[in-house]
Amino acid sequence: MSPPFSMEIETESRELANAGERASAEMSREVARFARRAQRALGLRGEIGILLTSSAAVRRLNRQFRKKDKTTDVLSFPAANGEMAGDIAIALPVAAAQARRFGHALRDEVKLLVLHGLLHLAGYDHEQDGGRMARKEEKLRRMLALPGGSILRKHARRSNASNSA
After folding, report:
1. What does CATH list as the number for 5-164?
2. Residue 163: what pLDDT?
3. Residue 8: phi, psi to the nearest 5?
4. CA-CA-CA-CA torsion for 57, 146, 26, 122, nearest 10 degrees?
5. Positive or negative, the Cα torsion across 102, 106, 110, 111?
6. Which of 17, 23, 48, 98 has the largest CB neighbor count within 10 A?
7. What are residue 86's DSSP bridge partners?
8. Nearest-angstrom CA–CA distance, 23 and 37
9. Nearest-CA neighbor of 44 among 118, 101, 102?
10. Among 110, 134, 114, 138, which residue's Cα sits nearest to residue 124?
11. CA dist., res. 57 & res. 39, Å (int)
12. Residues of the chain under the 70 pLDDT cut
């Protein structure tokens, strides 16, 4: 049996609002199916909530909970109790820009961000784990047939920036 799962899409995000209700419902179902598969592959227990929303909403959450006044692509909020694994918030405009930059579909980018968020909910922290999360994300990305992962892309951008300086 699959763990309980909830997903909310805020229509203030133009990426989905422009796509229409049918497309957003299809994306929601596809992302929910993917999240269940990824959650099982990761061995993460508990209910997960996923919010697909605007950059402004993610910036507010980032400011409120992380004291960082900037937008980001994905935020994860691990739960304090055993019934919930936690919540993931994804900024759809940022995901859409990244999808264009990396040459794949918005759905694939959202799935990459869901995977990244699930890894954080499972306790991984790429800022402090010496590459452990990046290796796990890469393994799961290949197993789940996704394009290049978000940690690897961020590392490549930093390397390219330092190489061009």
Report:
1. 3.40.390.30
2. 31
3. -130, 135
4. -50
5. negative
6. 48
7. 48, 78
8. 21
9. 118
10. 134
11. 25
12. 1-23, 149-165
Q: Report yes or no: 113 and 11 within 8 Å, Cβ to Cβ.
A: no
> b/e string for 33-56 if b means 16 or more Cβ within 10 A?
ebbebbbeebebebbbbbbbbbbe
Question: Which pLDDT score is estimated for 109?
Answer: 94
Predicted pLDDT of residue 10: 52
Structure tokens given for 134: 């990046």
Q: How many residues does the chain have?
A: 165
Rounded Cα–Cα distance for residues 36 and 42 (Å): 10
Residue whose entry in the numeric block shows the structure tokens 């929601």: 28
Concatenating the DSSP letter of every residue in the chain gives -PPPEEEEE-TTSHHHHHHHHHHHHHHHHHHHHHHHHHHHHHT--SEEEEEEE-HHHHHHHHHHHH---S--SEEEEE-SSSSEEEEEEEEHHHHHHHHHHHTS-HHHHHHHHHHHHHHHHTT--TTTSTTHHHHHHHHHHHHTT-SS-HHHHHHHHHHHHHHH-
Q: Which residues on neighbouring strands pair with residue 91, listed in sequence order?
A: 53
70, amino acid identity:
K
Tokens describing residue 122: 């499972």
